[in-house]
Amino acid sequence: MSWRAEILTLFPGMFPGPLGHSLAGRALETGLWSLGTHDLRDHGLGRHRSVDDVPFGGGAGMVLRPDVLDAGIAAMAAGDLPLVVLTPRGRPLGQPDVARFAAGPGLRVICGRFEGMDQRVLDAHAAEEISIGDYVLSGGEPAALVLLDAVVRLLPGVMGSAESGRDESFADGLLEYPHYTRPAEWCGRAVPEVLLSGNHAAIAAWRRAASEAITAARRPDLWALHCRSVTPTLAGAP
Ligand code: SAM
Fold it and tell me: Which family does it belong to (predicted)?
């Protein structure tokens, strides 16, 4: 059985969206993964199929009702898949989470809207609350697309060897080294000499040092973690 994504959303038309193109789109077409969308509005109440209500305690905006969300969750096929809720309050998504999700059978994903979702239904389902970054989107759908894009590309057979994820940023806790291609000189800027040398050991050493230097400069949080686990080289860094 291929990896399965089930999405609960008020905007099913937003899927597959960008996931219908390129790597993820080809993989969807060839059955390496599958996607099901569920319209939360189908479980709305009354003549207007209402899905939200005012927040207890007052305040601006509307909150998605727990009974409506619960009915939507119950209607999602593959009820045994891990349940992820996208929310700015969640744990920040990292590459280890992405690899963990890709190693599993699939995910059920709930996209919030308005001010958010009634907390009780998230607690009742022991949903994993995930954030894609410290900013607020208008809905969970773009966050779900980001999450699924990151996961799907790690599924077996999705990336060819040319696109392999082995050397990428975060794979070993570091940011990736800089890339260069032809021409070797462009607008007076030369490619680092070592990359033209054909000396594979020297190139690997340069790339490692460049990764470390960039990580130390740009991401002190990742760099501190890295230094705790290995002895950095930094020799030859650009
Ligand atoms: N009132 C919420 C708050 O301040 O945390 C923001 C709600 S936001 C306007 C509506 C929905 O967008 C959320 O329920 C969530 O599903 C989604 N969303 C917004 N920002 C997100 C983020 N950084 N990561 C994941 N989901 C996000």
Answer: Belongs to the RNA methyltransferase TrmD family.
Q: Could you identify the atom of ligand 1 that is nearest to the CA of residue 132?
A: 24
Rounded CA-CA distance 18/118 in Å is 29
- 15 CA distance to ligand 1 centroid (A)? 18
Domain extents for the chain? Answer: 3-152, 166-229
Q: Is 49 in the pocket of ligand 1 (CB under 6 A)?
A: no
Checking ipTM against 0.95, whether it exceeds it is yes
Cα separation, 210 vs 234, in Å, equals 7
CA of 114 relative to ligand 1 center, distance in Å? 8
C-beta of residue 36 within 8 angstroms of C-beta of residue 9: no
For the chain, what percent of residues have pLDDT higher than 70? Answer: 94
For residue 212, is pLDDT > 90?
yes
- Long-range pairs for 20-24 at CB < 8 Å and ≥24 separation? 23/152, 23/153, 23/158, 23/159, 23/163, 24/148, 24/149, 24/152, 24/153, 24/158
3-152 sits in which CATH class?
A: alpha beta
Architecture of the domain spanning 166-229: Orthogonal Bundle (1.10)
- Residue 140: name the closest of 3, 1, 15, 4 by CA: 15
Q: What is the pLDDT of residue 162?
A: 55
pTM: 0.94
What number is the average pLDDT over the span 149-159?
A: 97
Centre of ligand 1 to C-alpha 91, Å, is 12
* One fold for 3-152 and 166-229: no
